[in-house]
Amino acid sequence: MKAVGARLPRYDGVGHVTGRTRFVDDVRIPGTLWAKALRSPHPHAGIKRLDTSKAEKHPGVHAVITHKDVPRNVYGHLEALGVPADEPLLADDDVRYKGQPIAVVAAEDEATALEAVELIEVEFEEREPVFDIRKAYDADAKPFHQWGPAFPHFGPYASRRIRKGDVDDAFERADVIVQGVYRPQAIEQLPIEPQVGLSVPEPDGRLTIYSCTQAMYFSMGVVAAHLEWPLNKLKFVGGTVGGGFGGKVDTATETITALLALKANRPVKWRWTREEEFLCSSTRAPWHMELADAVTSDGWLLGRKMITLHDAGAYTRFSSYGVTKHSFHHTGAYTIPNLRFDGYVIYTNRSPTSAMRGFGVTSVSYAVEIHMNRIAETLGIDPLELRLKNANRIGDLTANRVRLSDPSTVPVVLAAADRIGYELGAEFKQMTSEPRSGDLLPDHLLTSVARDGGAETDGRGA
Amino acid sequence: MAKHRGRGIATIEYPTGMNQNGDPSQAWIKVKPDGRIDVFAGTVDIGQGSKTVHTQIVADTIGVPYEWVTMDVSNTDSSPICTGSFASRGTFIGGNAVRFAAERVRERILEIASKEMEIDAADLEIEDGEVVAKGAPDRKLGLADVAAAATWTHGELLTGAGAAFKPYSTVDDDTGEVDSEPHSAISYAACVAEVEVDDETGEVRVDKLVQVYDVGRAINPTLVEGQIEGGALMGLGLGLLESSYPYYPSVEHRGEQFGAYLAPTLEDLPDLDNVILEHPSADGPYGAKAIGEMANNAQPPAIMSAIHDALGVWVTEAPATPEKVLNAIQERRAPQRDGKRVVYDDQISIAAVSGNRGKGGDGEGFLLPDE
User: Fold this and answer.
1) What value does the CA radius of gyration of chain B take, rounded to a whole number of Å?
2) Which end of chain B is flanked by fewer CB atoms within 10 Å, N or C?
3) What are the distances in angstroms from CA A452 to CA A425, A449, A455, B290?
4) How many CB atoms lie within 10 A of CB B256?
């Protein structure tokens, strides 16, 4: 029997539903200490004084760490890709979101650790928080981030840009311009298993880190960078995760338990409460998108102008990556020849937003697809036929000038129509993804189709 | 006061792998002395079933029963790098890594079998755990015997490694043009949502989702359906229920427990009609493309459009809570028309909310779509 194509059961299904799978919190090592964090009660404040001496002397406490204990406190998840770092592992002279970790205690049990957290003395200077990304450049805006209101490192620009064709000419030629605003919200990744990590100092000087990360090597790289250690002094044990959905790409517990374990020379486990998981972990980002499409009365998309604001929360994390991915897909499943796109990463005093299922694209699919139905409404034409007419086809060029080799907008629309018994016009029923010709290659699309020997990217990578 | 029915469609696309690439996955395989197969990779199974899918790929690529393959993704000492289980890269990129490793192992098995059987390796194939001479099916040698010969006669280890990688694609910051394809295969999907809206309570119920996904090749159709159905509920949560900040942009009233955060449950699960299309990709394992992340992208816009079909009003600030739906019914806001320009949602735009239309000093600010 061939395995590929077979409905084989998940190898881990029985273990999960009978409670026999060993997740990180099920790993018990004798002598383990338990961690609890002091987190910011304010969305934005300066830290004028931080004193952990009483907590350190509290009976049962083995280690307390602050930013001073981190060999490299500021490290960016995307530094390897040239994105500079902006987020401290533990807050230094200010806090920028409610729930930001400031100090972490390792003690004999969680109750003792919580008592010690209460004994840490902090003097805050509360500052005005920033929440509405639309007002980032207002005259009275008070940006709190060292880089200003927006991430400034898209090359020389503060926005990820797409410029293709002659968008002003397309808007001039359009019969109708349809404009709309789309605002999908922040949501929680909501794994059943909250963030949890266990770091164990080994007799040979290595650290074993039991992790619920979605990305063992990635998280190991982050820990190694903060510790300034080579990778071979770390061993990540993982691969069994109680739900991720993007929320376990950011490294949450591993570095801090590693530092506490080294300081106390004992294993240290940190398991977030459900409240911490809700209030302090990253969320899916809220987005603000404005689209204006230049269209003809018979339903051709001539051009698109779009601005996107991505609510990054307090630090960048993967935001610039998400906005770039967003920009690459801002034409959706359709081919549009003339484009002007600007995507901004805007800082606010909420929990840093980060990866979640569909990162960067869930938002743009939301905007583009409602917008397509509004164009159909405005023009009084069929929404499925509007899609089929402008669908990606073999040989079409994307916003990045990449040649599409196997698009399937047409087959999925036709299959959906068939499934709901939807009657399409005869010329639409016959459509395929084959390269454009005839009526499907009007003059305005001549520049958006790859030609043999053309200068366009061949679409198959380097 | 009445209930209204509506239908809305969305069509989406989604890329495989990290945007701009540069995200390796690697694997290595060894064969035990009795011919059973051990696979080592760093790809975390987050519940999507990547370990099962990778095992299926290895079994068929080498030519052994599925039960012969054990996969270890438990630690970084024994496994090579995998960038991670995100960016819809598990089946395609992680799958290619184990496929390439399995192809190497297969070659090594045939080398040893060739010596044992005195038949050229090119004339041998592996089927269901046996090395068989092409065109002479009675001339065969069990993989257990090949592995035993490698171990005890030839003193060799049957092993192989594979690495899946697409080089980093550089983007021009001025224009967005890239110097190479910035992703692997693109998957496409369509979703039709059927809703019922109560115009007295503002409550929206999704009755049915028809969902079509082109996944290239369904390596495991049950797991593909798992992605489709799990994604449907997540998309429904995005469209109608969930919000970390119910009064966004304010941070007040952020839910801090399941009782204060409205996530979908099985009670909300509509009728699902799943359609899997298989237009194979050129370079994915067995033609596979990705499905993981895109599975929650099409429902929200389809649901919002179905609400419009039912009531004639648009909600574009998600989720479409009863409060927002009732407000939309009450306001019955029509798009503003100015010459050939038709403007929806002007009241929530940057131009409307910002004190200075999003413009700061020193040339800073936003370039708006009407500029």
Assistant:
1) 27
2) N
3) 32, 10, 9, 29
4) 16
What is the separation, in whole angstroms, between the first and last Cα of chain A?
37
Supply the DSSP symbol for A158: S
Whether pLDDT at A455 is above 60: no
A216 vs B: CB within 8 A: yes
- A131 contact B CB<8A: yes
Asked if B364 has any chain A CB less than 8 Å from its own CB, the reply is yes
Which residues in chain B have Cβ-Cβ distances shorter than 8 Å to A365?
10, 12, 297-298, 300-301
Residues of chain B with pLDDT under 70: none
Closest Cβ–Cβ partner in A5, A137, A324 for B359: A137
Interface test with A, best of B68, B82, B166, B181 (most A CBs within 10 A): B181
CB B300 to CB A5 under 8 A? Answer: no
From chain A, the residues in CB contact with B208 under 8 A are none
Closest residue to A461, CB basis, from B180, B297, B361: B180
Pick from A164-178, A435-449, B126-140: least confident: A435-449
Report whether A155 contacts A77 (CB < 8 A). no
- Helix (H) or strand (E) holding A278, with range, is helix A274-279
Q: How far is CA A36 from the centre of its chain?
A: 26
Residue A241 sits at the chain B interface (C-beta within 8 Å)? yes
pLDDT (0 to 100) of residue A1: 67
Give phi and psi for B359, each to the nearest 5: -105, 130
State the Cα–Cα distance between residues B251 and A280, nearest whole angstrom.
Answer: 12
pLDDT at A98: 98
The predicted-structure confidence for A91-141, as pLDDT tens digits, reads as follows 999 999 999 999 999 999 999 999 999 999 999 999 999 999 999 999 999
Q: What share of chain A is helix, strand, coil (3-state, %, to 5)?
A: 30, 25, 45
Name the one residue in this structure whose structure tokens are 């409460």: A273
Say how far residue A417 (Cα) sits from the centre of its chain.
33
The DSSP letter of residue B90 is: I
The strand pairing partners of A213, in sequence order, are none
pLDDT band (50, 70, 90) for residue A450: confident
Is the alpha carbon torsion for A185, A191, A195, A201 positive or negative? negative
Q: Would you say A367 and A182 are in contact if contact means Cβ atoms under 8 Å apart?
A: yes
pLDDT of residue B371: 87
B357 touches chain A (CB under 8 A): no
- Which domains does chain B carry? 3-16+183-326 (3.30.365.10), 25-164 (3.30.365.10)
Three-state DSSP at B30 gives strand
How is A2-32 classified by DSSP, letter by letter? -STT--PPPTTHHHHHHT-S--GGG---TT-
Q: Which domains, and CATH codes, for chain A?
A: 29-126+189-272 (3.90.1170.50), 160-187+283-448 (3.30.365.10)
Contact residues for A90 (Cβ-Cβ < 8 A; gap 6+)? A65, A66, A67, A69, A70, A73, A101, A102, A103, A104, A256
Q: Are A323 and A222 in contact (CB under 8 A)?
A: no
Transcribe B260-276 into DSSP letters: GS----GGG--EEEEEE
Place of tokens 């599975």: B295
Distance, CA of B77 to CA of A412 (rounded, Å) = 43
